[in-house]
Amino acid sequence: MQRKERLGFTLVELLVVIAIIGVLVGLLLPAVQRAREASRRSTCLSNQRQLGLAALQFEGRMESYPPLFDQLPDQKRTSYSSERWTTWAVVLMPDLDRDALYQQYATGRTPLPEAYVETMLCPSDSSKPRSGSVNSYVANAGRAGPAVGQKPANGPFLNRIYERHAQVVAGHWKDGQDHTLAFGEQIAAGPYDVIGWSGLLSEPNYVDQQHLDDTMVEGDPPQDGVWNPAFLWHDSPPTSALINGPTAICLTNEMPPCAVVEGTGRYVGIYCKPECTETMRMPNARLSSEHGGGVNVVFGSGRAMFLRETIDYDVLRALMTLNEKKSDSPKRSFAFDDSDLN
Description:
Layout: H1 11-62, E1 69-71, E2 85-87, H2 88-91, H3 99-106, E3 137-143, E4 181-185, E5 195-197, H4 209-214, E6 226-228, E7 230-233, E8 258-262, E9 267-272, H5 274-281, E10 294-299, E11 304-308, H6 313-320
Parallel strand pairs: 3-7, 5-9
Antiparallel strand pairs: 1-2, 3-4, 4-10, 5-6, 8-9, 10-11
C-alpha cells in the first residue's frame, strides 16, 4: 500500500524551532547592544579628543590655555547692557570650526542661540535631547572651593570672571600636559553655554563682591562655588565627588534651602544658606557616564582614554593638578605609576 508523504511540520517540531530561535535571539541581543555601546563610547571619546585638540589650537593662538569662564569681546557686544560672560565651550567654538556660532554669542544678544553642536553630546547619554545647547562634557576646574583660592597649579581651567588676568601658560604644566586631565564626561552637565557659578547675580555686567561676602560664615572663606560645566577635586572627597558617585542631597528643614538667581540666560547662580552650601554648591561637579565602569577623559596633550571608576582618588587628584608640588593638594609629594591608570 502506498503511503502518503507528509507535507508539513508537527506542532512539536514548530515549538522546538521557535524555542531555538528564541535562544539564539536571546544570545544575540546582548552582543548587539554591547557593539552599539562600544560604538557610542568610541564616538564619545572622539568628541572629547576634538575638544582637547581645540584647546591646544586655542593655546597656540592665544599663548594661554582656555579659561573656564571668560568675558566676551567688548567691541562685538551690541550694547553695554548685553551679556558679558561665557563658558569655555563657547570660547572654543572657533577652534571647533563653529566660528559663525561664536560670533552670535559674542554680540551678547538674548535669547541665546542655543544651537545643537553634535560634538558636545555623548551618544551614550540616553536621557538628553538631541537639540539645543545640550552638553555632556566638563572641564577640569581644579580644587573645589571659592574663586579667590584658584591658582594654575590646581587645575588648567581658571575663572576669568573673578580674575580677569587669570591664565595657564606653558610654564605652568610642570607635571606635563600628557599627565594632566583637561576634559571628562558628566551625565548631569548643564547646557554648554550656561555658567554654573554662585558668584553672579542677575545683572549680566558685573560680579557682585558684596554677594560673595554675604555668603560667608564668620571665620570661613567665601562660599561661592562652581558646578557647570566643570569637575573639581577635593582635599577629602565626599562620595558625591567620586567618579560615578551618588548625587549629593541637601538635608535641611528650612525651605527653600537655596534660591536660584536667574541671569538673562547666559548664567545661573544659586545662593545657598551656610548649612546647605557644601552639598548644593557642587553636587554634580564630578565625572560620570552611562558607559559603566568609568568615564572617557582627555588630557591636556589631547591624549584620550577610558578611566575606570575605581581609580584611587589620590591618583585622580594628581591627574587634575598641573604642578602637584605647588598645588593645594594634601599630598603634594604623591607620585603615581602609569599602571595605576589601568
